[in-house]
Amino acid sequence: MQRSRWGWGYEGQLDALSGAVKRASQFFGQLQSAMPVADADLELPTPRTPIPAALSAFADASPLTRARFTWGKSYTDRVRGFYGDYSIAPDFVVQPTNDEQVHQVLDVCDRLQLAVIPFGGGSSVTGGVEARPSARQRGAVTMDLSRLDQLLEVDSVSLTARIQAGIFGPALEKQLATHGLTLRHFPQSFEFSTLGGWIVTRAGGHFATVYTHIDELVQSVRMLTPQGLLETPHLPASGAGPDGNRLICGSEGTFGVVLDAWMRVRPRPRFRAGASVHFKDYWQAVAATRAIAQSGLFPANCRLLDMREAFLNQVAADGSSVLVLGFESADHSMEAGLARALEITRDFGGVCPKGPSLREGEGGERGDDSGEQWRASFLSGPYLQDAMIQAGILADTFETACTWQAFPALYEGVTQAVQAALTEVCGGGVISCRFTHVYPDGPAPYFTFLGKAKRGGELEQWLAIKNAASEALGKFGGTITHHHAVGRMHKAGYAKECPPLLAESLRAVKQRLDPHGIMNPGVLLPGE
Amino acid sequence: MQRSRWGWGYEGQLDALSGAVKRASQFFGQLQSAMPVADADLELPTPRTPIPAALSAFADASPLTRARFTWGKSYTDRVRGFYGDYSIAPDFVVQPTNDEQVHQVLDVCDRLQLAVIPFGGGSSVTGGVEARPSARQRGAVTMDLSRLDQLLEVDSVSLTARIQAGIFGPALEKQLATHGLTLRHFPQSFEFSTLGGWIVTRAGGHFATVYTHIDELVQSVRMLTPQGLLETPHLPASGAGPDGNRLICGSEGTFGVVLDAWMRVRPRPRFRAGASVHFKDYWQAVAATRAIAQSGLFPANCRLLDMREAFLNQVAADGSSVLVLGFESADHSMEAGLARALEITRDFGGVCPKGPSLREGEGGERGDDSGEQWRASFLSGPYLQDAMIQAGILADTFETACTWQAFPALYEGVTQAVQAALTEVCGGGVISCRFTHVYPDGPAPYFTFLGKAKRGGELEQWLAIKNAASEALGKFGGTITHHHAVGRMHKAGYAKECPPLLAESLRAVKQRLDPHGIMNPGVLLPGE
Description:
The structure is a homodimer.
Chain A: H1 18-25, E1 59-60, H2 63-68, H3 75-83, E2 92-94, H4 99-112, E3 114-119, E4 139-144, E5 151-155, E6 160-164, H5 169-177, E7 181-182, H6 195-201, E8 218-225, E9 228-231, H7 244-248, E10 257-264, E11 266-267, E12 271-279, H8 282-293, E13 301-305, H9 307-312, E14 321-329, H10 335-347, E15 357-360, H11 369-391, E16 393-399, H12 407-426, E17 429-439, E18 442-452, H13 458-475, H14 491-497, H15 500-513
């Protein structure tokens, strides 16, 4: 199978999604379908710098390789790739197969003043992997880490595993499965994202509660910086000084390259309990979800879909909001936990038309139809965006977290702002919301918007909508990103959210670890 | 009630503990009791600097005040206070009642080159509150934060509360209780430690799992640095850059003064389930505890006492190890969780002589006798150390965390090293161990040691034992501190544990936030 040059994943997946596109299309009437630029027609800029001899054994400056490592997978990235814009292609791509080669790259690039862009699965949706050198640099090199893809060690007593940073989700789970273990970190990008990418972007994963971010699953990290190796201690916990792992999580490649990490793994779940609860009233559904988030029941899945999200995902078509609940354990039945959660939902008018679903034993996911429907829809999401682009639909998502107190105004404010922008630039459109994660003190709302694209004008349309969304998030007390990272796309929002003295502190750390500023310049740090 | 000048808490608490001292004494034969130096006989050094006029309204340079703020509450601190050593008393003590006065202190001290030592409850057991100026400074001022003691705001929807940093544990819980809420952070120092102290030392609290450290309960912090206010955003979670709260947690007053924080609070528990499980074989008990830590049952209490710890705490006298289990919830019965945990313990030969104990409704703690016994013993621990000092017993604790894989060798290695040191410097003694917290990937073992003190030679004795313990912790893969902080006492161990580039990074942050190095100099940071 061949990966798409411009789109999400393997080629030839789009036809299967035609139903979803059709459902979305009914909002927009006649659409103008198009085809991506052919590989043979690509035009790439001349490299600013030749491949240094010391790196030539594992470097590649061929146009198609450079094109494949030019963009991430944001809506705007895909649109640019679709139309053949590769104006910011890296000068060359290095593909190290071991730590020593990573070290060589940093060494050579530090000496030659070349920017180094760590590239895992390239699934960034925030412009986090663009090869844009700073003014004082002579070029930019993208470092493809996907050959650092091995499970190195397993400690089955402590349930930890040392895993190389460049491994993709499915390979990671496959290697762990041979030990009966799982990381259970399933971001929507799972198929084409890497452990190292999850760590440096603080990716949000499978668990709706407790272990929401990859941060919680990191035991220790080996990160190579231009100043040498930073290896945090191999400990379950410590109170000795500020937590070094938490400085690496979220650093977005600006401090160094994560080589590998000891991760907290677990036995594969054997007991599952799930249900889909329908609510006529969204605010009653929100109240029920909050009560569950504050109950200490710790569901693995607790995703509330508003009426539009439920419709788009074919979970409910009658205007209901739907709360998808899932509990899982490798140790014990989760029946009691689900029963109590359902009791809570009933207090808020929730009904469970298909009843709860319980399953014991390996294999398969929840038996509940809506749950499975939801999961299939979830994993095909990134493919769907390709189909939408091709069909002429502008489709994107953004996400945040806020307190429960702030949520009602944020939901209304963001929805109105984005709806207004859609009306203005697309002549209409739809915005929907689900919770991806919930905390005792607030939800993480995830918004999807759809509008009719103007061929050739998508980037301007998108920017107007994105700006409206980002401004509303800030205004109503939401973070600029709960798990998508800052990259370049969210720098303005992050600059407002990040306390100035924290920004100064992070710049001071950057200066110490990467004094020549070669690591992923322009990403994350305000003012850089 | 008057607080002891040299000892733990209120005066006149020692008699009630005579039974515990008697039990300990049986290990040591004839002991040589003594009395502390009287207040009237104290000799304090002449202040290096007068009180600046700008601070005179809330500063105090009287000898007794300076004495009370000279030491923390480590064994060595208490011994020094007991014998009347106040050679490092601060030049004066400031007692701000509002943020503006804290700001004034930092401003004036930054200008005059005076060290500022933030002092909460003064319960540091690691030399974290000593007024020792650096070579370039002209004196040292201790900042008593205990008048910043108010609950400022409550968000009962999001279950958060904004609380001033100088509030002591009991007052904090009392103020929250009027809203039906609780922080449920009960370190052993609870009675005489503050929220701000908990945050900057990454204190370990009540919950044995999930919310083990105060870090997890911090939503946002306002910290005043010499360069201004650093206020982290008021959010349940974010993926935007490295987590600023985690840079403040564990900074031990070296970056600035925490003014207040939004904390995650919760309704008071209504459902409790507890049991004490006895094991003939310690390693079976460890295996059972590991299985529970990895089960996802999330007990609030999961403290395994080895046979000596069980004996000293009167929980078992027959050589059994005892696992004290507790579950609690404000939402639902914890009977099923406890039942499954007990099932696990039975697989490893655990027996529960008194059966499980279930309780519903407000008030009281676990009904199980051993559990209550344990709690009473736990909270009187710090008082007990005073009585031991007076009775002539050298008594102290140290704690760590390591992986489950590393634990057996660490337990044996640490026990042997400390036992050998006790034999050498005390002519014998006893060392015991309990787990204070457990993680899926490892336990947090907490060791207590007792020996016969040589009057006047306690500090040398203690140092020999402490060095043996710290060296063994490092050698066998334990952290130098899981929740007691680094301070001055653990600096050597921390310097070995902290990756050099992380130490460099923290120094860079310090340089940015406190360029003149006035904040708690000599604490935490390697090489400072």
